[in-house]
Prior knowledge:
Elements: H1 3-12, E1 31-37, E2 40-45, H2 46-68, H3 84-104, H4 115-131, H5 134-140, H6 144-169, H7 176-179, E3 181-190, H8 202-213, H9 218-235, H10 240-247, E4 252-257, H11 270-277, E5 288-289, E6 293-301, H12 305-333, E7 336-339, H13 341-345, H14 366-371
Antiparallel strand pairs: 1-2, 1-7, 3-4, 3-6, 5-6
Helix pairs in contact: 1-4, 2-3, 3-6, 4-6, 6-12, 9-10
Amino acid sequence: MSLKRFTKLMALGLTGAILFTGCGKINTSATLVTITNGDKTETISLGYGNFVARYNQALYDMYYGSYMGADMWTEDLSGSGSTMEDDTKKSVLEEMETWYVSTQHAGDYDVSVSSEDETAISEAVKAFMAANSGAAIEQLGATEEYVTKLLTDRTYAMRVQEAIEKDAEGEVEVTDKEAKQSTFSYLFFDKGEDDNPASVTADAVTDAIEDIENGESKKEDDEAAQAKTKADVAADAANFDEAAALSDVEPETYSYTTAADPAEDGGMDEAVIKAAKKLSEGEMSSVIETDDGYYVIRLDKKYDKEATESKRESLKSEKINDYYQDIIDGWKEEITWTVDEKAWAKVEFNERFSNGAPASSEGTDVTDKVLEGDEVDLSE
Length: 380
């Protein structure tokens, strides 16, 4: 993203009235992070860390709060055993550490912030401060100094990442073996699906309760039997197209890495991949049973050129990202990053930001427009 687009997004991200319920005071001058970098020691203030955290919270509240619920910050939405507030604060610290090491190594990649950049940042800071009410600014803990630092830190980190990824282009390689894809079409018959459910009667409910008490599940057995029958009919068809017509199931396609272990595929049941590997191009399988249902497949292409090139690009992107992350991780290992956990615990997301995602009169989310560099008139 260009600096112009980024600063526009920063300026627009919290445009409008932001409601608040009051905020607790923190000692903004207290030290949040102490950084030992060789023979140099630096610090990051609690005030700045609080602003970065609350800015991230505000964006989540505005864009996702309306459908994630009032308790989203206190719930374990990721299943990690920690709240969303904890997860977000953790990612904020990781991001700030990435900003720090990126800025420290910017000279390695001839990355700098020019006077033109500083002017653009200054304008974005003024727009940000003017676009929000005094109450919102107080709740965010925003100051011109903090907003300037955030934009500057992000600019350095963004440009260093771009430079590293440019270097990675010539370093990473995706082999033909890694990329080669085979593609099959498949029909899936769900064991739990009942195309013609019976009417729910009192007797049916009573029978179901008795089945459960007896450890039986007749309904599930019936559905599985129906699915198996349909799969058998499809497998007995003259060809795959006829099988699809007979089963009234919409065929889908799936591509897998030809040389990979079926157990490592992740996107399709191992039994299906194993069956596909045994087929000749154009050949149709017999019924393949999995825990969820039954498959009938046809191997369309032993070597799918289009799918292979798509996979090559995705693998290359993954390797470039890994290359970048390895360098960042290496830089982080060179420093000692010490967080004052007691100070950090005082940063809480008890007060919510509201207003929803800003939209134009046509109802279009302006975020997409901003990221594209389009001008947006929020007065519409």
